[in-house]
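ARCHIVE CARD
CATEGORY: sequence design from structure
SOURCE FIELD: tokenized fold
FIELD CONTENT:
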């Protein structure tokens, strides 16, 4: 029998994604900044800083999908904070390695196991960066989340765990007893031990309270969901280390600005948008759509140069945090006539989520793209192509066509430009939709030869919406699935 790590099914699922639901639920409110509204709804959520406030921030995104497992991981690279990158890279490896070992022995089933690692910035100002990683693993009908927050101290030049926010062992002991007294109704106080592993995720909310949160089932073995407390300053202030005090100040800065040495890279070249050419008539032209998922990433700018150079259009299915981190790239895509589609906020398998969560996951990327480009996506690509009636209903309610593909380059598996190019070209057909990922450098490397070879075969490279306007597409309506003609 397979060991089960987490128990408690449906309730855990509902509680686990509360962050996404809360954040999307307030997206319509006006007046106060978004982070302030978010905090007003749940004081035990740490502040989430907009990634776009960190100049030059990049992300490392990996996604894989086969019959045995689904995996999506992402973490940020903050310029000038190399040790933090190493620490996050190691943390993500520590999460994915056991999952990969376990899932290698799985028999392909109906519910494919899923691992999803998301990040948020809890602070990015002065000399301090905080990054919170939430890892969600689903196995069968069970799911559980682990939470870790890492801190970078730009003065010392090192990355540390959350326990470094307090001043040594005595302070950690004192903190443990404060937390024990606070959480007795929600958890087993005995399990709140005064060791660094217990206090692996600490950050500050927008009021400056210290948020102490735990991984599922760590301090509350039988109760599903997230256990967290927000402590007022009077209780924890004397316990803070020097880093802790600076981290709190950084978390309270309304307009975060990092001042790490070599932290601000030279401004990237901004290409002037080429005037949009007339719409291609795909009733007569041999049209084909290249699609790039999961980005933008570090190689997306180069990809846009290539597409620009080749006068080719493509469709980018962007995910929440990567889109928010790259507003300039999104505007550049839109200006160049590419299409931006919705690949959800957190790249979860939507078929595992409740309707309200599916709605929130989709809506949040709608909002992010509209905020940046002035126009919300009209296409939804469900992560892993996994869809069901609920996903269809949500897509319909938001006026989105579900955009799938009929050529998979498997570029995440074979990170080799020639192999990827061969798959794209061999699978090409009129009305085809080719799946690639601009989060892999090798996929971007493959694009010049793909474009040249396809053009040699008489194809016109268009967006998915261009394909949809053709009579060959048989006019799919919102909610319908479209995977090429
Ligand atoms: Ni994807």
């Amino acid at each position: 029998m397979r060991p089960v790590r987490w128990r408690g099914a449906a309730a855990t699922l509902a509680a686990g994604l509360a962050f996404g639901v809360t954040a999307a639920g307030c997206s319509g409110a006006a007046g106060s900044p978004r982070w302030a509204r978010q905090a007003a709804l749940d004081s035990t959520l740490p502040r989430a800083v907009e990634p776009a406030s960190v100049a030059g921030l990049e992300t490392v995104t990996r996604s894989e999908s086969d019959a045995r497992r689904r995996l999506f991981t992402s973490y940020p690279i903050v310029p000038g904070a190399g040790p933090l990158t190493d620490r996050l890279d190691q943390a993500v490896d520590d999460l994915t390695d056991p999952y990969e070992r376990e899932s290698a022995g799985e028999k392909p089933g109906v519910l494919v196991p899923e691992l999803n690692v998301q990040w948020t910035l809890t602070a990015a100002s002065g000399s301090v960066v905080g990054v919170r990683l939430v890892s969600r693993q689903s196995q069968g009908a069970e799911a559980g989340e682990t939470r870790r927050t890492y801190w970078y101290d730009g003065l010392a030049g090192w990355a540390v765990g959350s326990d470094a926010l307090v001043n040594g062992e005595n302070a950690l002991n004192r903190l443990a007893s404060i937390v024990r007294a606070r959480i007795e109704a929600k958890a087993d106080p005995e399990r709140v031990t005064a060791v660094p592993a217990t206090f692996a995720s600490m950050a500050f909310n927008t009021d400056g309270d210290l948020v102490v949160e735990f991984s599922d089932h760590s301090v509350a073995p039988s109760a599903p969901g997230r256990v967290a407390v927000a402590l007022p300053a009077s209780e924890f202030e004397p316990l803070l280390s020097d880093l802790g005090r600076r981290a709190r100040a950084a978390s309270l800065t309304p307009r975060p600005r990092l001042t790490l040495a070599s932290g601000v890279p030279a401004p990237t070249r901004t290409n002037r948008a080429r005037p949009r050419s007339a719409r291609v008539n795909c009733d007569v032209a041999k049209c084909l759509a290249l699609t790039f998922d999961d980005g933008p990433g570090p190689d997306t700018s180069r990809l846009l140069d290539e597409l620009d150079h080749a006068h080719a259009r493509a469709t980018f299915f962007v995910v929440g945090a990567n889109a928010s981190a790259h507003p300039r790239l999104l505007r550049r895509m839109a200006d160049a006539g590419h299409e931006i589609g919705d690949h959800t906020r957190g790249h979860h398998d939507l078929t595992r989520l409740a309707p309200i969560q599916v709605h929130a996951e989709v809506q949040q990327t709608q909002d992010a793209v509209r905020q940046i480009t002035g126009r919300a996506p009209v296409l939804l690509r469900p992560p892993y192509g996994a869809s069901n009636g609920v996903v269809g209903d949500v897509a319909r309610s938001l006026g989105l066509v579900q955009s799938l593909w009929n050529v998979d380059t498997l570029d995440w598996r074979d990170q080799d430009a020639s192999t990827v190019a061969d798959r794209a070209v061999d699978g090409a057909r009129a009305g085809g939709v080719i799946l690639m990922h601009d989060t892999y450098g090798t996929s971007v490397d493959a694009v010049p030869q793909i474009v040249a070879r396809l053009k040699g075969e008489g194809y016109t490279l268009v967006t998915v919406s261009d394909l949809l306007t053709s009579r060959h597409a048989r006019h799919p309506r919102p909610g319908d699935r479209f995977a090429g003609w």
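CARD ANNOTATION: The longest strand covers residues 114-125. The two ends are 45 Å apart (CA to CA).
SHELF: design records, drawer C
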